[in-house]
Amino acid sequence: MPELRPASFVSSVFAAPGTRGFGINHLVRRLAAGAVLAGVAVPLARRRLGIPRPVTSVVTWQTPLAVALALPRSRFRDAAVYGAQMWAYVTHYELPNDDHEQLLRRVYISYPVAIDRLIGLGEVPTVRLQRALGRPGAVRRHDTALSIVHWSWFMAPHAAVAYVLFRHPERFGAAAARVAAVFDLGVAVYFVLPTAPPWWAGNTGYLHHVRRIMTEAGERFWGRAWTRLYDSLSGNQLAAMPSLHFATSVMAARVLAEAGRGPGAVGWAYTGALGFALVYLGEHYVIDLVAGFALAEAVRALAPRTAPVARSLARLVSSVEATA
């Protein structure tokens, strides 16, 4: 059995040994398919039906395992398990905002401002950059270009994982698990430490002279479609610490570098451009990026130590797959 290094439940699903084809009996498959449907439907209906958040959480987190048991082993199943993992992440990213008033009472605003003033030698780097490169009331070409870099993040880490799946499938389990672990651990912090981004602090008077340049560029670039796009992607605006934009891009660059020098160079170049864009556009503080980098590196460093747990979960999945 191949060694399982990454730290995440997902690794046990991706790397679990077993035969291809129909090793799981029909009853188990049908039960798993029902669990998949529940994992998709419950988050969608939680607000309308008043489903408690703990129930939503449990039902959603079982979805990757249910997908693994419902489908025969293949690249499609690997991609589907990763997709289910991301569905669980998105659900938990949005959950704190289900009670927006409660979230506002808990949000932290001042500590990242104070830290970034220290980093910026008396001035928040976002303010310094926007004064130097921006023009209030105008959207410049680099504003749009950097906004496009920011928007591309919604696909970039997943594109890196997909590249590994199709070009280096033997590395896919480790790569997908580490990227997923960064998402999962980051979203856990959002529950206990909801933190406002620079643009939010600027809009509410806590930090002067900060624009959200991305929205200004979006209105001009996307036209009438912008409002719908913005609403669909802004499920929780008080989730800035750590920056998962930056953390997942760092991890994506790491897994691409393991696949080859060229892909790694592309990954790191993108990560650098994204980090600059996030600070300049007012989406994140520098300290958010520092925390995101630390999170990604911690997942990478701790991954080998979780091998025993990953192997145990792999054996569990394999034993169910082998049921005749």
Task: Explain what this protein looks like in three dimensions.
It is a single chain. The protein has 324 residues and is mainly α. The protein contains 18 helices and no strands. α2 (26-49) packs antiparallel against α3 and α5 packs parallel to α11 (172-192). The radius of gyration is 21 Å and the shape is globular.
List keywords for this structure.
disordered N terminus, 324 residues, mainly alpha
Task: Supply the helix-strand structural class.
Answer: mainly alpha
Give the end-to-end Cα distance, rounded to a whole number of Å: 21 Å
SSE order, as H and E? HHHHHHHHHHHHHHHHHH
Fraction in helix: over 70%
Topology record:
Blueprint: H1 9-15, H2 26-49, H3 53-61, H4 63-70, H5 75-94, H6 100-106, H7 110-119, H8 125-133, H9 141-152, H10 156-167, H11 172-192, H12 198-203, H13 213-222, H14 226-233, H15 244-259, H16 261-280, H17 286-302, H18 307-321
Helix pairs in contact: 1-11, 1-18, 2-3, 2-4, 4-5, 5-11, 9-13, 9-16, 10-11, 10-15, 11-15, 11-17, 15-16, 15-17
Care to give the gist of this entry?
By secondary structure, the protein is mostly helical. Helices cover 71% and strands 0% of the residues.
